[in-house]
Specification:
The structure is a single chain. It contains 13 helices and nine strands. It is mainly alpha-helical. The chain is globular.
Amino acid sequence: MGGRTGREGARRVMVNPDASTGGAWEPETRLYSEGAFRGTERPVLAPAGGGHRRIEGTPFLDPAGGGLPGAHEADEAEVRAFRRRLAGIAIPDDGGRYADLATTALLDLYALALPNGAVLGAASPYWAFVWARDNALVVAAFALLGQYEDAWAALRFIYGVQEPDGQWEARYLPDGSGEVPDDRGRQDDGIGYTLWATWLAARLSPDATREAALAELRPAVLAAVAAGGDVLDAATSLPRTSQDFWEMDQAEPSLGVAGPLAFGLRAGAELADQLGESALADRARGHADALLAAVVRTYRPSGYEHFPSGGGRDASVAFLLPPFIASSADPGADLVPGARAAWNRSRAEMRVANGGLRPGAGWPDPHTAWNPQVSLYAITAAALSERATARALLDWMDAHRTALGSLPEKVTAAGAPAAVAPISTVASAALIALALLDGRPMPVLRGYEPALAPFS
């Protein structure tokens, strides 16, 4: 986990080490930026408290509010063109309730997007990379909003940096070189997320777009399907140990990796079928069934805590629920035995005093809320048709945005936005939750019912 310096580099933990106190932990309270603008080469940050603003309806800096080095200076034709494009997107906003939140989230994604398809985790220097995990949510948001070319561009980027064995490192430089910024190693949930996002984009895209994209990406997609089975332990059917969204080294396979691999392998089986590789599809389906059975067998006794040995419940419980694992007969029904009850318990255990959620009951900082988890739970609530819960979570997010309207990574105990803003995974998750609230068609993976029958 080397290669990072400074407070801003501590993405993998909620609080930062303070050398002056001998390694004690303290909450993150600083806001690095109010938002981001499209740059000439890469996104440009809006400094906290700087008073900068966007040209309305665009991701471009308004020079009337002050200039910034590296910001793209859009001419009138570019502004008109982008506004026309935005006007053609049916942005989900729950009947207008979240119109500004949703529009700003989409503009933030376009501010973080590069011409080569890379969408940065954030524009902040220690975040200006592409994670497979975050990229998948970007793809899903674009696809649900009908922006299929943007979705496939993001997928082309992530498959373009895929490792020779079909897997992915934790994160990549956005230049498409395939180089990584540090030695944190593989994060195997990225395989599952990427396969799910690919399947989702394929299901939602027009036929011609889907067929052309899958033909182009065919070898890479099939390699990822095979890789999803390669990282499972033959004896237990659980994943090998790797980092998950906590981005901490761990000694046991976590639910944060097992869940995404379970729905990703099921998605991969459908993709392999579409690509005419029935034998690989059967293997992937078998791996998905064995993994999901192992998850229920291993994690259910503790109520789906983070590790087989315990560790408390965390946001990983959401990966066992709709829209990730759902019934084709009733997309809003939870299938994994005990998962919905565990999710309900986890919400109480993860809640912090400011009204938000932390990543898990065992997270070291009990005071700071994290929007990646709040927005993920908004997705789950919307998919489960718990509309009041979804709206309560979105209302909370809406009330804790930056001066530019961006959704930050964190919210302090005092209710102030903190750390990076915008962050692509949060902007994407908010749009996905709103799409579900608006009733956008959400494809459902088939075949979970037989796999779970022994546990019903």
